[in-house]
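Render this sequence as a predicted structure.
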Amino acid sequence: PHGDQAAYETLVRLAQDFAMNYPLVIGQGNFGSIDGDPPAAMRYTEAKLSRFATLMLQDIENDTVDFLPNFDGTSMEPSVLPSRFPNLICNGATGIAVGLATSIPPHNLKEVCEALIALAKDPSLKLENIVSEFILGPDFPTGAILENPEELKEIYEKGRGQVRLRARAHIEKLQGGREQIVFSDLPYQVNKAEVVKRIAELIKEGKLKEVASVRDESDKEGIRITLELKRDAEAQKVLEKVYKLTPLRKNFPVNLVVLVNGEPKQVGLKDMLQEFIKHRLEVILRRSRFFLSKTRERLEIVQGLIIALENIDSIIELLKASKDVQSAKGALEERFNLTSKQAQAILEMRLQRLTSMEREKLLQEEKELTQKAEEYSKLVQSQDERIKLFIEETKELISMFKAPRRTIIEGKTSEEAGSLSVVIYEHGEVSPLERFDGVEPTVNILEVPYSDGLFMVSDMGRVYWVAGKQALKGSKIALKQSQERIVGAFTRSSAHDRIILASKLGFIKKVPLADFEYKSQGMQIFKLSENDLVVCLLQAQEEKQVVLFTCSGKAVRFLVSEVPPSTIGAKPVLGIKLDSDTICGMRLVEDGDRLLIATKRGLLGIIKASDIPLKQRGQKGVLIKAGGLIDLLPFREGMEIMVVTESGGVFYDRLSEREVKAGKSWSLENDSIRRIVIVR
């Protein structure tokens, strides 16, 4: 009744990942932004249903819900959707009607599903158990930190209240002893551009005198609002002032008003969960009745066709003697005790059904239909069976969608509460380990905390980064040159403040992490001479030693402290003297370590770290393995490694010292090793 513009605005919101926890629409084109930019006109955009929306419509054609006339009676529409996906709880809702308003915060799908399973098993489960063990609190698409978890039980019990949110922030060190505050997410429904504008106004008005400048450094990898502080400013005090004066701290109202049996009602969280379970059990019952009816109808026909095949000669004679179709149908029903549907199916049967193979197919179909009818009959007759199926379907939802929590509940969860193993590929892609296909050349496998940053260095000496949350979902950085390749990666939290980079021609450099943390993508941190490339990187640990090894099998060992720390603009220093050779790799070792030697052809061996003399940086290496060296790894009994070959093959191995010393090797036939990654 409101025209297509209102419908388009709704569709746009359903596609926005900053408005919806689990978008119901996949949009192609400009669908607006968190800065408040309007979407493109509808003629410029395309859309399709997401997997979540498909789950909401699943089984709608199987008589699972009632249909009613629409507003003008021209068509029929469902009174409610079957919705296997708990959309109202997971995506939330905000709306206002005549004298009524609702404000339901979004929640985490995994937590909601676990609560539904627990409540289906034990309907007497108390709200305090649901809140403490399953649903920790709201989970907003923009993340942020929830500050008042102690009020959640009362809010969920009464169905109304307020949750207090603040933007997540961290403090970074800058050169010259200065600091900057970085906001990496926003409270729900806060306009990022307005926040930046408000902070700029406060600086201009003198209310934030300690802030030198504000910058919006956000990009496709995530939100990043940077406040650079003046030299003597106390970052923590400035942060509190910013929270107080801007929408970076705000309240979100909770008002759980929903329609229960067509009537608006204020409910608690447990009531909402119970209503969803009740709805799904009704859908399963109606679906089972529908399928049972269809199965019995088909079984009736199949049994009639089997009777026909067993008495085919008699039936043919009967049909030849019949005057017309109606008399033939009546004769079939009377002589063979058939129903009207069975007699009609026999009359419509094609001659190809007379073959013995077709008869076997019908007997097999009869068996399968009988089993299905029994299963559907159990579901129709038994509430326990329906609950069991509901639990199975809800568990499938958890396995179908990986849903890490975005919003931190202060005191319950922390920014370090979760992490995920990710694979880093040479072409700049990062994806969860579960999606690893072994096709693309691999650089490393790392454990990335949800809230951390993943940094990648290319062979051209440039650094790129993705935020931890994006790394979990899977992302790909845009490398500046088509031939550029990633050679190493590390997380911010485990980088020991510095990283060491080594180049093909034997140069080495130790760079403070603060010099390039979250700066522009593709920033040059290693100046390369002609024909040189960065080949590897390590996380600098001052108490350890560096082993640089060449492709011809030579190695040099020296202290990490011998490599002078330098800025990103400084030139690298010499790590090893080379004679027409190139660096193959670099590892950190200690005096007592044993090292696994691996060649390109798959030959293995073990030496002591002390077999490589400890020298000063810039000396010539000693020969440890003649020709074809690919890696020199610190050896641990039972260590697991992933081996990537030049042809793109991937295999895993668990190593023992006894096997290696007994002459263990990898059979590669016409292939060779490209890279070895330590899995654990």
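Summary. The chain has 16 helices and 38 strands. Residues 269-310 form the longest helix (42 residues).
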